[in-house]
Amino acid sequence: MKNLNFSVDDFLKEQDLHTPDEKKNQYFESLILPLRESFEMEIKKIEEEFNFRKNQIINVFPPGSYPKEVETFLLFHIKYNELSCLKVKCGLRARVFDQIQNVFNQNINIDSNASMTAAAAAAAAANSTSPIIASNINKQHSLGKKKRKVDINLNRWYEANNNQPYPMYSDKIFLASISKISKTKVEEWMGNKRTRIKKKTQTTPNSKKPKKETTKKVSKKK
Questions:
Q1: Where are the domains of the chain?
Q2: pLDDT tens-digit profile of 97-156?
Q3: Any idea where the Homeobox domain is (predicted)?
Q4: Whole-angstrom Cα distance, residue 93 to residue 85?
Q5: Which phi and psi (to 5°) does residue 76 adopt?
Q6: pLDDT tens-place string over residues 24-61
Q7: Distance between CA atoms of 176 and 181, rounded to whole angstroms?
Q8: Rounded distance, CA 16 to CA 139, Å?
Q9: CA 184 to CA 122: how far, in whole Å?
Q10: Of 188, 32, 191, 7, which is closest to residue 101 (Cα–Cα)?
């Protein structure tokens, strides 16, 4: 449970939701500010509710010597409330982070190559040490490392559930939180994985039929 992540900043960093244009970054931050503030406020309320329930149990049963059955029941009850709290937090995270991703895609995410001027493109092509090229290379390398981490997390789940590789909503939101991606990205990854596996199983290598041995008739010389 320690790997579950509810930080907006970590999500933005992991998903590389920023551009070289600082003005666009500031505009993006202004667009998602209401989402960020409401999300952080809701997370705080959920955690306060859990602490309230936990303290209620502790107040009714202050520290002391209790039968083992009672202690087991109390620990189970606290753990149940904790898991319920995490489930609500993960559901909230999935909804809000999907919205943040959509805001970026619809308002900010413009292909850097398309936005380059002809002069900048020519300069970049002429000079292999161009800051634009260097920035793109570093960005691709960073995204590659992040993608490998995501693949590891999601592949573990897929291999453990390969007989029924359709994660439930609760699975999706937990996987999204652990991998620091949106629920939509989890759904896309799982769909692509199932498609690849299906194609792999359907396309069996064309085994060449063994040629029939033809016995040549040798004509005996008279």
A1: 8-111+135-200
A2: 999 999 998 988 754 444 444 444 455 455 544 444 444 445 444 555 667 778 888 888
A3: 154-200
A4: 12
A5: -65, -40
A6: 999 999 999 999 999 999 999 999 999 999 898 888 88
A7: 5
A8: 8
A9: 37
A10: 32
Which residue type occupies 221? K
Residue 154's alpha-carbon distances to 89, 176, 185, 192, 199, in angstroms, are: 20, 9, 11, 12, 19
Q: Residue 203 corresponds to which tokens in the numbers above?
A: 């396309």
Both tokens of 65, joined, read 């010597």
- Spatial distance between the Cα atoms of 178 and 3, rounded to a whole number of angstroms: 6
Residue 168 corresponds to which amino acid? M
Instruction: List all residues 6 or more positions away from 32 whose beta carbon is below 8 Å from its beta carbon.
Output: 8, 100, 103
| Eight-class DSSP state of 61 | S
